[in-house]
Amino acid sequence: MNPDDSKNxxxxxxxxxxxxxxxxxxxLLDHNLIEESTGDxxxxxxxxxPIMTEITPEDVLTQTTSExxxxxxxxxxxQTEIDYLQIIYKTLQSQITETQTxxxxxxxxxxxxxxxxxxxxxxxxxxxxxxxxxIRNEMKTTFAGTSQDLAIRVxxxxxxxxxxxxDLAAAAEQLQLVQVTKEKERExxxxxxxxxVKTEAETIQFAQQQFQETSKKIRRLMDQYxxxxxxxxxxxxLRRTFEPIHAEKVSNWFFSLGGRGAIRTMGSRLQNxxxxxxxxxxxxxxxxxxxxxxxxxxxxxxxxxxxxxLQDCLGIGRPEFGPDKGVILFEAPTALxxxxxRLVKANQLPLIIIDDSEEQISLGLLQFPLWLAFAPDPKMxxxxxxxx
Length: 388
What we know:
Helix content is 65%, strand content 7%. It is α/β, with parallel strands linked by helices.
């Protein structure tokens, strides 16, 4: 044995021997009781020793292990709850994303539709503005502020037209209309039955002196259309701007030609329709729904322009166009003459309006009391097939 180890051991034994054990209060009491009964303290001290050594490291380790297991179980439960909450969070986040996407799509679709409608309205407004500007320019360049040259040309055409009509009347007298004479002789009894209608048709002479009251009404209506236009008036009343050149044309047709004759075309079917509409409106004021306007044009396109123009100028609808309505459209003069003859027999007043596209006027149309023809201008040929 090492001398140093032996020395240390001796010192340890000496230290242990010198230690005075101080018993606790409970131990002293137990010691006194035991000493009184048995007089021996040592066995008691031996019995106290197991109580002091009752908790061992194994017990502490077991208890610690149990607590760790409980904590681990609680951790697992908490982790499960966290995972469940994360799943709910992801689900809600997904729903929010889908809702936002749907709302974005709805907003974009609505904006797209509104933008498309805006563009459509802008295009429509631009078209209407261009059309308005074109009409204004046409009115300014063609009708407003007519010069002396235009007046001279109109007077020259009037003289030319008067001579042409006189030549036409002379040529008609020289024709051998045997069959027409026979047909008139056959129909002579029928004409006698409708003698009041024939008498009234013969009395439609606006230029004669005995019809001054009717002439005043006509002039008053033309002044009203020119000075106080009513763009929202009742049906069959003129709703367009009525310039002095238009009033001159209508006045010439009523008072110079007596409601039976041709006038120079205005160079545009739109303006021809305006003049015819003024004549129809005045006659409708004078004779009511007895007036029937019979329009003659050689193509459906031109008839369509007349229909749209009359609707615009007179404020009438499509129901007013038909075989038994206020306005009747024809492509052939024969059918028109037959319809006009039936209207006269039915105590109606047919107003025959001939488009400027007709190169010749049928003689069968000249027998009726009211007809208005638009003669083409040989010096200024224009394309009348533009859209109204």
